[in-house]
Design goal:
107 residues, alpha/beta, three-stranded parallel beta sheet, FBD, FBD domain-containing protein
Length: 107
């Protein structure tokens, strides 16, 4: 769910969860891939929203635009609705492979 918030002349995205479940996200989405993650607050809030509302999520791959260790730690520490989810933060120069040992929950 996307909400537009206007402050002065600027518009920005805000990700907010509704009280009721979003059935598709809550009960069907098992894999999410995010390409060109730019470490902006909007991108971070999107990942936070998806992790909090994806109850059956098994894997989330985040392909970032540039290395950022501080942001990486913040992403890994986010609360998750699914206890099974593995977050894989990759560099866009490398292809994602499901068996990649670097894609672990505590990476």
């Amino acid at each position: 769910m996307v909400f537009w918030v206007t402050t002065g002349d600027r518009e920005r995205y805000c990700w907010k969860s509704r009280v009721e479940d979003i059935a598709c996200l809550s009960y069907h989405v098992k894999k999410i891939q995010i390409f060109h993650y730019d470490s902006s607050n909007t991108a971070f809030q999107l990942v936070k929203f998806l992790l909090r509302n994806s109850k059956v999520l098994e894997s989330m791959e985040i392909m970032r635009l540039s290395p950022d260790k501080k942001n990486r730690k913040k992403l890994i520490a986010l609360p998750r609705a699914s206890s099974k989810v593995v977050i894989c933060i990759t560099d866009p120069r490398y292809r994602f492979h499901e068996d990649d040992s670097s894609c672990t929950e505590d990476d």
